[in-house]
Structures are given as C-alpha cells and as structure tokens.
Amino acid sequence: EEQLAVEASEMTTAMLHKIRAGVVIVNENLQIIEANLAFINMIGEEAREINEIIPGLKGAELKQLVPFHRPFTTVLQTGEDLLGRDTTFGDVILNVSVFTIKKHNVVGGIIRDLTAPEVRKAEIIER
Predict the structure, then answer these.
(1) What's the distance, Cα to Cα, between the start and end of the chain in Å?
(2) What pLDDT does 23 receive?
(3) Cα–Cα distance, 118 to 69 (Å, whole number)
(4) Cα 119 to the chain's mean position, in Å?
(5) What is the pLDDT of residues 36-82, one digit of tens each?
(6) CA 5/CA 87 separation, integer angstroms
(7) What angle do CA 31, 21, 94 make, to 5 degrees?
C-alpha cells in the first residue's frame, strides 16, 4: 500500500511538470506543497532562485510570492471552488482557478497567462 502511494505521488508530480499552465498546491497555511515549473517561471526570478534550492518551492509561503493569494484562502475557508478569475500580475493578465483537493486543508490552483499567444487564441475561441 505504501509503495502504491509513492508511485501515485511520483506520477502526479510528473504530470504536474508536463502541464503548460502554472499549477500550485498549497496547505491550509498557504504553504506550497508542490508547484510546477510553469508556475515558477510565471511568477519570476525570485521563485526560480528559490526553486534551485528547494525544488517545487515546497514549504514556501504563497503570500510572499504572489499578490493573488486571496482566492486560495477563500477556497480553504469555504470549500467552494473559484474558477476562472482574471487578475493582473506585473504586465500580464492571469486566469486563476482554485479548487479543493482536501476540504479546508489542501487546495490547488491552475494559473494561465492570458497574454501568452497560445492561451490568447484558445481563450478567444472559448469566450
């Protein structure tokens, strides 16, 4: 059973790092459990430097890295997902969706840069 859990964790981590959108998973204290490279690159140089020392930004405080942490707090408190919220971050517009993984304990976020050419085209078609 323990081996199966380890394998499932490894598969999940591998999938996270293949997704083009930024993905971050945080605990009830808004400490990062896992973040993929797309998220790390999206939020900037400081995050890339931290990632070199602490892969996946494990344990870093989301509040210290991004100004759009409130949706994560809201989902942790309410247990209700917040999908498709647009916010600005520097020179870009991000689409942030936050969802419950373990109610009131763990939430995940998918962040897409709406100014990226491949996202812009898909978003225009969808909207």
Answers:
(1) 44
(2) 95
(3) 25
(4) 16
(5) 999 999 999 999 999 999 999 999 999 999 999 999 999 999 999 99
(6) 36
(7) 80
